[in-house]
Amino acid sequence: MAARSYDDALIARDLYRFFRAGEEETLALRGVSLRVARGETVAVVGPSGAGKSTLLSCLAGLDEPSGGEVHVDGVRISHRPETERARLRARHIGVLLQTRNLLPHLSVRDNVRLAQGAVRGRPAAAAEVLLDQVGLGERRHALPRQLSGGETARAGLAVALANSPAVLLADEPTGELDGGTERLVLRMLRDRAEDGCAVLLVTHSPEAVLIADRVIRLDDGQATETGGTGARTAGPDVREVRHGSG
Asked: Are 17 and 77 in contact (CB under 8 A)?
């Protein structure tokens, strides 16, 4: 096997995911492989039910693939106990879900501090700096229910970035946002990539696709690369997307 490139922060190989309901079995992922390099932004698109959220859950270690492997920052996170996956996720991955990752009874600042608590040695002041970066310094004491839609999106992004992750995974990060707020959040995601993070976002937004270096389309659990319009071009060693045979 060829040596793994140090530029690849996220590697997925031959991912399959089966779901069983009674006598029926659904194959949500069919041999999906992909790579995302540090400093790269990849958009995953496709129709509802194509397997996008399932893929993101497997990449984040929130769900286990039925077959295949996921490596993040040089560490295999798949096929490990849940507690071990959670520890590795806290250290290497930022996850921005549609629910924005916020606990309703905690202030914005305390949500960020809780996420930072998983990483030893992170000073409390780092939460203040991060909130300033996403434009929420003056709203740090607000509860999630007191935030606007755009503020909620930025607070969720701050939580996802709290551990300075090597990989940032975002599920519909701009869903239901107005145009101005969408562009702001996308600029923040792109800035994070330019700082060396590997960014993968699941999206239906044409605006989000425009910031991507590469675009991967999922149809019926299979992946094809359709190009990209971002500023950077990935080298050939990080452009692999293979097709499953299912």
From this structure: no
Domain map (residue ranges) of the chain: 8-102+164-238
Please give the pLDDT value at position 56: 95
Counted residue by residue, the chain has a size of 246
Backbone dihedral region for residue 135 (phi beyond 0: left; psi -120 to 50: alpha; all else: beta): left
DSSP 62: S
Residue with tokens 């399959």: 16
Confidence of residue 115 (pLDDT cuts 50, 70, 90): confident
Q: Can you tell me the distance from the alpha carbon of 190 to that of 199, in angstroms, rounded to the nearest whole number?
A: 8
- Beta strand pairing status for 75-76 and 67-72? antiparallel
Q: Span 8-102+164-238: which CATH code?
A: 3.40.50.300
Say how far residue 222 (Cα) sits from the centre of its chain. 19
pTM, 2 dp: 0.84
What's the rounded Cα separation, in Å, for the pair 91 and 73? 10
Q: How would you label 166-205 residue by residue, b for 16+ Cβ within 10 Å and e otherwise? A: bbbbbbbbbeebeeebbebbbebbbebbeeebbbbbbbeb
